[in-house]
Write a structure and sequence with these properties.
The structure holds two protein chains of two kinds. In chain A, helix 2 (about 20-30) runs parallel beside helix 4 (about 65-80) and helix 6 packs across helix 7. Chain A is built from nine helices and five strands. By secondary structure, chain A is an alpha/beta fold. In chain A, strand 3, helix 7 and strand 4 (about 180-185) form a beta-alpha-beta unit. Chain A has helices at about 5-15, 20-30, 35-55, 65-80, 110-120, 135-145, 160-170, 190-195, 205-215, and strands at about 95-100, 125, 150, 180-185, 200. Chain B is built from 18 helices and 20 strands. Chain B has helices at about 15-30, 40-50, 65-75, 120-130, 155-165, 175-190, 195-200, 215-230, 250-270, 295-315, 330-345, 365-385, 390-395, 395-400, 410-420, 435-440, 445-460, 465-485; strands at about 35, 50-55, 60, 80, 90, 95-100, 105-110, 115, 140, 170, 205, 215, 235, 240, 275-280, 285, 315-320, 350-355, 360, 365. Chain B has an eight-stranded parallel β-sheet with strand order 6-18-17-15-13-11-10-9. A four-stranded mixed β-sheet of chain B has the order 2-3-1-12. In chain B, strands 8-7-20-19 form a four-stranded mixed β-sheet. In chain B, a hairpin with a 6-residue loop joins strand 7 (about 105-110) and strand 8 (about 115). Classes of the chains: A alpha/beta, B alpha/beta. The interface of A and B includes residues 105, 107, 110, 203 and 204 of A.
């Protein structure tokens, strides 16, 4: 096994053992040695994440292990991003997703779990936090060239903000460019349909499936 | 057994030292880590009273002296009035009461068995249904009506509850305006502002968002209710071990305790002496999915620990127990609920909600499950009633008279003590196999379903007088005008 192959294998292992420090260190070595950052992601990190994802789906892993692996992956990518030149050579991802909890709502854990699963599932995720105005969702989505916005709400009094977001996107003529998925215990399929959402998931696993479907249909 | 005089405390889950340790750790957490209050008015109140406040971070660091003062001024006892005064709740020490809760989004239709979204009619039906269940002490709004304006749905729930049950009513409010309106409605039902002070027929709950956050609207509601000085307010938290709280039970306890005390301090700073209840709905998260594990055994453990803390602090408690993650009235529902209810009741938790009619990760209500849970509650009530040991119950002369080889069936003593000493089940089947087969092999669920249908058909408590109900409706309508609804 040559030096590069060994490095790829160690990158994969760092994700499987959800070792963030090691993943970051190895990403630094990739840059130092001048190896191809995209290739390192696709042949080193992604296979590790795929395996983690498989093990999680089959019930062998707990959520913290998935989240930690996702964090290690994200941290390593953040290091390797420095080698992407002006966004010319963007890595192949299923899609880019901006996630947030709507304005007036600070519930966050469900969205955080969706973020981990989407990262594990091969998406690039931008979690912009809680209490997010509709304009902010859109601004971030345009900035990072996202395909999907995921808006979470937990309260009957804040769930209407999901509709506001979709209406604003329509108003700006961005409906074809930005898909919106909604979730949170207060939501359901008929609410999602009523407000014109492009997708709805009852839990985090469904959210990933919906995102994949949306990207395939695109 | 008198269902209205239950006392817990048979379980003392933690030692006195452990309780002390939790309290001291909480003081440290409040002073060194602090809590976020997403509300400028609340932050100002904290700062004015000596807390360290960072307005940019919306964070408050609370000193131990503030905790002491708030605990000293919070009342030791609260009366929650019912339309039938015999059903008033006396919340103090280790007195135990059971009720349902809170705002399931769906129910299992009693005719079709299928799950469907809740409606305002379901609120009327569930409230009058529990009115007829003898082991349930109060009604906490258990189903969310999706067919009324959502901005005032909490008020429609309250109106439906008052009209349908004479047991005491508890609810959650979702805005400052509806909180104000709910207080007005309670005042109408109480019979005036003086009566509202003496015997408030309402309690309203708010919860923090773990870890360590009080949301904008809930801060407003705390301040609004505290200002009344007399309307009871539940200030609680729902930490989940492993996701929004440390995975360790101790860590979740100290976190939830800090959030509760911080909220209670805000209320006491607004109005010293206002009646507050100390609330806990925490559990573990299921660590495969990250979801709230409503049926977990750890919920029972956490409830028991908080019951002890509530006694230590001498503040009445809003507690939780009796849920299940099962999607139906099956075996899992039975054991999860029974374990939780036992832990809560035997630890002397006061107002135990979610004890009946709820399962499926808190999302679905069921009339049949209410009947089954009523039975479980009856069994636990029997545990709490204890064993009477006196000359009469020791029955030495009876035993002497019956003598070796005799029987007790025909003794007057037997029939006169039977109903106090034995729990008489109505759902559980004790027949022989032969009789059971001859009767059609009915399960507990079959029996419960039949009883539920019967109760729904026959039990119609007297509603409010028409004038009073009209007044409640006009309060709702004027609130809707203010909020720009319809």
């Amino acid at each position: 096994m040559d030096e590069y192959e060994k490095l790829l294998s160690e990158l994969k292992e760092s994700i499987i053992s959800y070792d963030l420090e090691k993943a970051v260190k190895l990403a630094g070595i990739v840059l130092d040695k001048g190896y191809d950052a995209i290739d390192a992601i696709e042949k080193g990190l992604t296979p590790g994440m795929d395996l983690i994802g498989e093990r999680y789906q089959s019930g062998d892993l707990f959520l913290p292990e998935l989240v930690m692996a996702g964090n290690a992956m994200q941290a390593a990518i953040n290091v390797l991003k420095k080698a992407f030149v002006n966004g010319n050579k963007l890595r192949r991802v299923f899609g880019r997703v901006v996630l947030g909890t709507v304005e007036g709502d600070i519930h966050d854990i469900g969205k955080t779990i969706v973020s981990s699963l989407l990262t594990a599932g091969g998406f690039e995720v931008y979690d912009i936090g809680v209490d997010i105005k509709a304009e902010e969702f859109i601004k971030k989505a345009l900035e990072v060239n996202a395909n999907i916005i995921g808006a979470s709400a937990l309260l009957s009094t804040t769930v209407t903000k999901q509709k506001e977001l979709i209406d604003l996107i329509k108003e700006k003529g961005l409906k074809d460019r930005l898909r919106v998925i909604v979730g949170g215990a207060i939501t359901n399929r008929s609410w999602a349909d009523k407000i014109g959402a492009d997708g709805y998931g009852e839990n985090a696993v469904e959210a990933v499936a919906v995102c994949k479907l949306l990207m395939a249909v695109k | 057994m008198d269902i209205w005089k239950l006392k817990g405390g048979q379980i003392k889950y933690l030692s006195d030292d452990q309780i002390e340790e939790i309290h001291l750790a909480t003081l440290r957490l409040l002073q060194e880590t602090g809590v976020v209050f997403d509300n400028e008015e609340a932050l100002k109140i904290f700062e004015k009273n000596g807390a360290v406040v960072d307005y940019a971070k919306k964070r408050v660091w609370i000193l131990p002296s503030m905790v002491k003062e708030a605990l000293a001024s919070s009342p030791d006892r609260i009366t929650l009035a019912a339309r039938n005064p015999k059903w008033d709740l006396i919340l103090e020490k280790q007195r135990v009461y059971f009720g349902p809760g809170t705002n399931a989004l769906h129910l299992l239709d009693i005719e079709t068995g299928k799950r469907r979204p809740g409606t305002i009619q379901d609120v009327y039906d569930f409230a009058r249904f529990i009115d007829g269940l003898e082991n349930i002490h109060f009604y906490k709004t258990n189903i969310w009506p999706t067919d009324v304006p959502q901005e005032t749905a909490d008020l429609y729930q309250l109106r439906a509850s008052y009209n349908s049950t004479k047991k005491s009513v508890g609810m959650a409010c979702f805005s400052r305006e509806t909180t104000r309106a709910a207080v007005k409605m309670a005042e109408v039902v109480a019979g005036g502002s003086a009566e509202l002070k003496k015997r408030p027929p309402i309690v309203i709950n708010v919860l923090s968002v773990s870890p360590l956050q009080w949301g904008r609207t809930n801060c407003e509601i705390i301040m609004e209710l505290a200002q009344t000085g007399s309307v009871p307010l539940i200030i609680g938290s729902e930490p989940q071990c492993g996701t929004t709280a440390p995975v360790t039970i101790a860590g979740a306890i100290v976190l939830g305790n800090a959030e509760n005390l911080a909220g209670i301090i805000l209320a006491q700073l607004v109005k010293p002496g206002c009646p507050v209840m100390y609330g806990m709905v925490g559990s573990v998260s299921d660590m495969k999915s990250g979801q709230y594990a409503s049926g977990a055994v750890e919920l029972g453990i956490i409830t028991a620990c908080f019951a002890q803390l509530s006694h230590y602090y001498k503040i009445p408690m809003y507690s939780t127990g009796g849920m299940s993650d099962s999607k139906s009235s099956d075996v899992q529902a039975g054991y999860e609920k029974a374990i939780q209810i036992m832990m809560a009741a035997m630890s002397g938790a006061n107002y135990i909600h979610d004890t009946a009619g709820l399962f499926d990760l808190c999302l679905t209500a069921s009339f049949e499950q209410f009947v089954i849970d009523n039975e479980i509650l009856g069994m636990v009530a029997r545990i709490l009633s204890g064993v009477n040991i006196n000359h009469d119950t020791l029955a030495l002369d009876i035993i002497n008279n019956v003598g070796p080889g005799g029987h007790f069936l025909a003794e007057k003593h037997t029939i006169s003590h039977l109903k106090q000493e034995h729990f008489i089940p109505e759902v559980s089947n004790r027949q022989t196999r032969q009789m059971w087969e001859a009767g059609g092999c009915r399960s507990a669920l079959d029996t419960a379903r039949e009883k539920a249908r019967e109760l729904l058909k026959k039990h119609w408590p007297e509603p409010l007088q028409e004038d009073m109900d009209k007044e409640l409706l006009s309060i709702i309508e004027s609130t809707e005008k203010k909020l720009g609804v319809r």
